[in-house]
């Protein structure tokens, strides 16, 4: 009796729990289109309760997936839905999961996956229909939601891929007067999707617009009445789109005046009503939290601003749509529509560059999401599947025949070898294997020793390169401190030029410029002292660039020439070269400066270029004193520019480096011509860049001439086929017309490239004159080119028409209504292939037992055992790993089922045991060696990669720093020389400062761009403390760990042997430091902070009461040395001392 009572009590509790779970899920669903946070709250509450009771919680998972879809957390939504598909047998929830996966695939343009889930959903619907009378009332309601949602999602997908009729048919499966009336949210969804456009059919556009507006108004009214802010916003957005066009707006307002007064709650003018509705919709969707629809609302609001010509507001809306949440990049169709509208708005504000960029992005997205990619992929997959099936069938049949023949041949061979067999021969393979194994072990040991030696050497190189890299970074950091000083100098010169200050103020400004020049000179002196010239590879950044940009920089630096009384003449050029831009500027400056030094006052230096078919020759010519023949022959053997050795010899080295890169640079050369008393000419050659520009111009000229010839012909298409023509003549005429249309389309393309958009429109008209309506590809091309030209010419109607034609035709051309059949065919193909292979493999498997039972079992059992031992020996001498050999021998070691004598059994067992024992011993030793070798090889590869990367980086940085130093170090002194407190040299100072600023900016930026990420490890920390030890006169400072938290460690390093005054301590980590090692220490700590994103890291000096220096170091905790490690370093240092 007690047992019965307990069962009834437990059953009652379980029933109440199920009711509570259903109630929580119903609440979660009720908030789907009201509040996403509430939907998530009740779903999670239901899921926790389901988990605690051990019952099915997949309905809660589906509700959570709905929230993730709305927030565009697509990866999380997919994970939740896959969890549903694998954790339950509830067909209704599985159906809902399939439908939500369809929605996810539609948003992400995954066309094939969409049809796979659609097929699965249709199968589940048929299965549920067969058992619908067994559904509980709760799941009967869920089924109403699932049916209507399936049709709505399918209709939405078909509409966006251009299958309009399929979209209409899918939505027509919903009976608006049927069971959907029990679910207000789904009824609102149905009304919105009908009213949104593309579904309603009528005699004219006016009737279509009116019917769609009626559906949207119905959705709006009931969503307000039943508190569905999502559908209220969607309805307002749909009505906004209908009210944007002035003519359509006037018609709808005239015929729906009461409704307009009702929705116009802010009493906006008619022209602003669409924007008001869109703004209200945007605000409601923003509060609701649907990321996808928020972006769509921004797009709609931008359209409203577009129609009232408020382009800046439209641009702001579209940028907000793209930038407010980057998750929308997961929806290519939505992003494509925003990009297309951006191109329109940028064109309206005459921003051609951004307009073209967004137009190209829009076209790229159309290409990436086109459906015929699925057609191509599945056609190839079907062919591949068919070929694989045929090959498998042929291979299995061939194997059956081959095995049958081999069985007979082997039997004959066995018969012949039985009489010659001896047991002694079974041990010979083991002896051979042992000798081979000993040789292999010796070779492996030698290889391991070499690896260890290489690893040690490479680790030392890596350690050196890493430390050098840190020093290079510190040098660049020092070089970058000059940039603000140059900026201040430039600003002061600008104020001197533009302001009418008092003489006292102007005198102070000149004094400040002089002080800045002195400071820069001081920094340059530090940098010069620090940088050591290193021989290495020159880092080249090859690009095509206009030579005139470098000539402009050279011409701006003519002050040095004027001060010496020399006229610098830089001839304009249209040439484009392919080379390293910075090094090319260096070569021109070096040769020009060389000419200035050896040209007397009153002379002339001319910089020019000459272009040939293969190269551009850049020359610097002067009328100075010239050189003798013997001097000219060695001009590139030593330095002629004076100073620091980075002159003509290095120019020659750069040219030689170009020649080693590629055959493109085989034209590179450098040479000199000179005559005593008449001057010199130095020139170098570089390959041409962007040759296609010439070809493009030729094509445009040819196309223009061709168009003029065609326009001069009489009206009418002479190539149009007529009824009087024969079949052959019609074919010829059609081909000629197509060729003419294609030429005009090409001309339109090149005209757009040239920027003659009005000409493009004329080419487009001529193209349409010859165009055949069935030539889809050509229509797509000319529509796109016309749209681009109309966009540039601000002919919006023409643009809208051609872009609509392009988009619609592109979608129709790539639309795919055969994917469902394809999925079914693929499934059938896979099934048929598997069945055929199973049957043939079964037939192949039957051959062996048939042969055995009919013939082979009558063979001598002893001979079979010997064959097995021979097989073991073959395995032993094979190239397989020892583990596979032993596994094969163990598999063959089964002789108990054969009837042989005791003596024969003992002999065979002894041989097999010796083989097994030898293999086991070899496997144990090999495993240990392989583990050691793998670790050593992996470590060596890592070291090689890190070392090579750092070596290249150090070489490039070394080159950049050398270039920066030698190209800019003289300018501060020249500026300081010109500053005399008066305005006499103000113009010269301005030119020199501007040139210095531009040159230093280019070179320092290139140096910064060469910096690569640095791995923070124990070596870097060791380097820091070694530097501190060296700075402390060879004694390791006493390091105390003062403070630590989750991220940082604060340490105090007592530099007991380093005694400084307050000024020296204050400047310890500045360019005025007493020891450059401290700048490297500062760079190490800075890099630690950069790499770990912990910005608090730093190193600061202070003085102890005893006058010693104390360094407070803040480091990331995860790379800071432990207190025991610091103590070990200190003890090791003391022992060494």
From TrEMBL:
Keywords: ATP-binding, Kinase, Membrane, Nucleotide-binding, Transferase, Transmembrane, Transmembrane helix, Two-component regulatory system. Its EC number is 2.7.13.3. Gene3D superfamilies: Histidine kinase-like ATPase, C-terminal domain, Tetratricopeptide repeat domain. The chain crosses the membrane at residues 391-410, 835-854. The keyword Kinase applies. Residues 477-690 form the Histidine kinase domain. CDD domains: HATPase. One of its GO terms (molecular function) is protein kinase activator activity. The keyword Transmembrane applies. Pfam families: DUF5112 (PF17139), DUF5113 (PF17140), HATPase_c (PF02518). It catalyses: ATP + protein L-histidine = ADP + protein N-phospho-L-histidine. One of its GO terms (biological process) is osmosensory signaling via phosphorelay pathway. This is histidine kinase. It comes from Hallella colorans.
